[in-house]
Amino acid sequence: MFTVRFLEFSIVGAIGVIVNQAILFLLAYILGIYYLLAAAFSFEAALLNNFALNEIWTFKKRNPCSPRWLRLVKFHVSRILGLVATMVTLFLITEFLGIHYLISNLIAIGVGTFINYFTSDLWVWK
User: What predicted TM-score, i.e. pTM, was given to this entire model?
Assistant: First the structure.
């Protein structure tokens, strides 16, 4: 189901991918941090970025009953499944298929997009 809100969510997600990839590259390639640890940090940075952009743009017309700090907590909780799926996919594709971790990370991010949208739409900004 394609809606304007999903398009906005996707644009925010694309910005988050750029943030995620840039930080992953910086931490893993430039600073030499193990790629899975670097991926966890880059995931969190992208998550905070995406929350802020979704809060002020994608879901701004919603008038949620919960305070912003609670929506941030719910956003984090809703992303646990996405984090697990992302990390497992990243590991499997990188280690077993021999694909570079930056490419694997893009595929892994794609795995969780729809789950993330529906949890945002139906729970975080309900």
Answer: 0.77
